[in-house]
Amino acid sequence: MGVEKLRIEGFRCLGSVDIDPDPRQNVIVGENGAGKTSVLEALFFLGRGRSFRPGYAATLIQDGAEAFTLFAEVCTGNVSRRLGVLQGARVLKIQVDGESGGSVADLVGAFPVQVIEPEIHELVQGGPNGRRQFMDWGVFHVKHDFYPVWRRYRRALQQRNQALRQKMARNAVQAWDSELIAAATEIDGLRKDYLERLEPHLEEVSQHLLGLIARGRYRSGWARDQQFAEALESSWERDASLGRTHAGPHRAELILEVDGTPARNRLSRGQQKLLGISLVLAQTRLVAESLGSDVTLLVDEPAAELDASRLEALIEILKDAPAQLFITAIGQNALPIDLPARVFHVERGRLSTLV
Hints:
By secondary structure, the chain is an alpha/beta fold. The chain is built from 13 helices and 14 strands.
């Protein structure tokens, strides 16, 4: 299902928004700067605890307001949840089902949401951190033991790095190695298995949308010819000198290739956008398949980013996507959509229902 009710207060230019979305397809229309993207951004924040655009969360608060609040009733896998977020200048408060003290991980688990936005090419062209975050969001939802293992790894890594910065003795630093190795090995296996399951979806979608078959190649974050324990041992001098652990899953990389060539070197910026979109759609399919429930998919101004033929190809895929859609456009006629949709109009930060 996805979002059943949505309420937004004081978020960017949106003063007060209260809507009941369609379970399948929602179109948000309005002039540039009216607040269309802000609606998508608020939905994304409810599922991630952050925006998909750069900047501090406090900058999302409407001018003159002390905080913004977001509330939604969502349904995933026949489980209904109530999510609430309050973001002030220095504090983020999260409620889940009326209980305070929730975490960002609670939001992520309760409300799987993905976005296709104008900077989607950065998923291909940008640094490895963005692709790791993208990959791990999928692993989180498909491999349900991933998050506790990742927390164990992060804790051991932080303790080891602290010991390195304090120039502690080698045996004191390496006291964390056994926990680090155990967690890293498990994370590595979970990621590899996830990417193996993602590959057929990525091949199919990229072929349809890009006209080329794309694949993802995984690098663990240490040399392929070494076990992680050997990598830690061989990098000891470097770690001790610079005060941080260099090898590990936190340095892993998802390398995107087309016909065996790195995509960032072969594809134009427009093609990189299509590959980024293909990645999101492939991941949406896999996560929905695993959860047995639709994912909420936000698509920002596709008509402004794609030519007519590619836009039609995207809409064709979206029709069958296992997702509740929220799509923005200047006007209804900008999108070649022939399925019933609930249409909302944004003007000066206010939403009204057209259809």
